[in-house]
Design a protein that fits this description.
The complex is a heterodimer of chains A (244) and B (291).
Chain A (H helix, E strand, L loop, with lengths): L5 E10 L2 E11 L4 E5 L6 H8 L7 E6 L2 E2 L5 H6 L2 E4 L11 H11 L6 H11 L1 H5 L10 H14 L4 E5 L7 H17 L2 E5 L3 H7 L2 E6 L2 E7 L6 H8 L9
Parallel strand pairs in A: 3-8, 3-9, 6-7, 7-8
Antiparallel strand pairs in A: 1-2, 1-4, 4-5, 9-10
Helix pairs in contact in A: 3-4, 3-6, 4-6, 6-7
Chain B lengths: L1 H31 L6 H18 L4 H28 L4 H24 L13 E4 L2 E4 H23 L1 H11 L1 H6 L4 H26 L8 H14 L4 H22 L4 H15 L13
Antiparallel strand pairs in B: 1-2
The chains are: A alpha/beta (244), B mainly alpha (291).
């Protein structure tokens, strides 16, 4: 028995004959932010897709808020506050910013109070207020990410999963966005953050895991001084033990 | 000027019928990415159901027609459960669904023959209103078709634009994976879309069954024309479909008037072949939306 919001146990998953996850286990406590680090193509996104039931795991289990998520639809998980903001979504090109935000409120069961949610999103992302009538297909990369995060907030998350929110953004936009994520961090109970920017992940989370070849090879507290060199050698195929 | 008004009337009637068919096909295409070959047979079934409620159950005209449309929409629910959802998520699901809907055509046509026999049937004219337009008279079912088809499809377009479920349908069309992550259930959307589309086909069936005759093969021709409309307007865009339906209706009316009934289909399909060669994305589309 534990009070964790999310418990992933021995999860394996893959596509066809390709194994991507090799028995991953992790937990996210209530009011905790964890970061996932690691090079591309090592299973971080697949892990997140399994957690939100968009991809079916081969074996292992995922428990969210005390119950097994096996067989539950993504819709069901969304209504219970598990909100997944996917990597590099091109959004809904023919919907306006306001429509996209309303859509997220409607599909998560918060249509009645969507205007309050909208006001809140506009205080976090003032830029979106200016762009509210614009089609999301015509936004810049940074603005698209803001809409994506804003849609996540509209769904009133308990656990917010952010997959590469700053992918492909310029340093300036990245900085602007990380300020916003910091703000979100203060109001959402639990967060899983995946990002290529190691400093960003470490500054926004409580704990981190390094994912390599579909397994967690290293974990630690984000405030501990993590040697960048040590982390790089992990990324490049070394193991935590070799550092000693 | 008699010729012009006759052509216009005929174009509006035909265009309306094709619109009712093609709007449903477009809706199904843009969300499920399948072409529903069963749409013509469903139109036919809608006409027979209405006829049964009117002639056998003895209901008054309007309740019988509405009942027929609702009954067919219910059949649409079964259609979705039996033919669409078991196949759509498998590998190559879109092909499986297309084959299933092709099978549904034969099933429905044979069922109609068994249930209602080979004698041709007809629904009475819908209403007795008549308008004189530049020397030719438009009345009854023709008038109803001219008004009802654009109104119904206009309401559908408005619903897609304004309502929550409409927003959901458009979101699923545009980004399926992200839509699911937002908590949109594709199953619910498919069910909604298929039911609405089949309901519209039933309306077309009732109108056609009153203007012409009811027979097991009555849906074949409208289905083919609706296919031309989709090729013309670009499948997946309701605006293109509306324009396409009336353009094909006009083309058919003009060619029938000047070249005769037997040449008209030839010329309509010739136009389709030319369009598909020159602009495979449809005349009115400037870009192909990615799947």
């Amino acid at each position: 028995m534990n009070d964790d919001l999310l418990t992933v146990t021995d999860l394996t998953a893959g596509y066809g004959h390709t194994k991507v996850l090799r028995g991953i286990s992790l937990r996210v406590g209530a009011a905790e932010a964890i970061g996932l680090l690691g090079p591309n193509g090592h299973g971080k996104t697949t892990l997140l897709r399994c957690v939100s039931n968009l991809h079916r795991a081969t074996s292992g289990s995922v428990a969210y808020a005390g119950s097994d998520t096996r067989g539950r639809s993504p819709r069901d998980l969304v209504r219970r506050g598990l909100i997944h903001v996917p990597q590099g979504s091109r959004l809904f090109p023919q919907l306006t910013v306001a429509e996209a935000l309303r859509l997220s409120a409607a599909s998560s069961g918060h249509l009645a109070t969507w205007r309050d949610g909208l006001d809140h999103v506009f205080t976090v992302f003032p830029r979106l207020k200016e762009r509210r009538g614009q089609l999301t297909g015509t936004l810049s990369g940074g603005e698209r990410q803001m809409v994506s995060l804003g849609m996540g907030l509209m769904a009133r998350p308990t656990l917010l999963i952010l997959d590469e929110p700053t992918l492909g953004l310029s340093p300036k936009v990245k900085h602007e966005l990380s300020e916003c994520i910091l703000r979100i961090r203060a109001e959402v109970s639990s967060i899983i953050l995946v990002d290529g920017d190691m400093e960003l992940v470490l500054s926004l989370t409580d704990r981190y895991h390094v994912v390599l070849h579909g397994d967690i090879v290293h974990s630690g507290a984000s405030d501990a001084t993590v040697g960048r060199d040590a982390m790089m050698s992990l990324f490049l195929g070394g193991s935590a033990d070799e550092r000693r | 000027m008699n010729g012009v008004s006759a052509i216009l009337t005929s174009a509006l009637v035909l265009g309306g019928l094709y619109l009712l068919m093609a709007a449903g096909l477009t809706l199904i295409w843009s969300t499920l990415r399948v072409f529903n070959f069963g749409h013509g047979a469903l139109l036919m079934f809608g006409a027979y159901l209405s006829w049964t409620l009117l002639d056998r159950a003895g209901l008054p005209l309007l309740p019988a027609l509405i009942g027929g449309v609702l009954a067919l929409a219910l059949l649409g629910v079964a259609y979705e459960f039996l033919l669409v959802s078991p196949f759509i998520r498998r590998p190559n699901g879109d092909m499986l669904v297309m084959v299933a809907t092709l099978a549904a055509t034969m099933l429905l046509q044979s069922a109609a023959l068994l249930l209602w026999g080979p004698e041709i049937k007809q629904l009475p004219p819908l209403g007795s209103a008549r308008i004189e337009l530049g020397g030719s008279v438009v009345q009854g079912t023709q008038l109803v078709t001219i008004v009802l088809a654009p109104v119904l499809v206009g309401l559908l377009a408005l619903a897609l634009r304004r309502t929550g479920i409409g927003l959901t349908v458009r979101a699923l069309e545009q980004n399926r994976e992200h839509a699911q992550l937002l908590g949109i259930s594709p199953r619910r959307v498919y069910l909604f879309v298929v039911t609405i589309a089949i309901g519209l086909a039933a309306v077309a069936g009732v109108l056609l069954g009153s203007m012409r005759f009811i027979s097991p093969a009555m849906g074949d021709d409208p289905l083919l024309r609706a296919f031309v409309v989709l090729a013309f307007g670009g499948a997946g865009s309701l605006g293109g479909t509306i324009a396409g339906a009336y353009a094909i209706g006009l083309l058919e009316a003009v060619t029938t008037y000047y070249f005769g009934l037997s040449w008209s289909p030839v010329l309509v399909f010739l136009a389709m072949i030319v369009i598909m060669l020159a602009r495979p994305e449809g005349l009115l589309r400037n870009q192909v939306r990615s799947a």
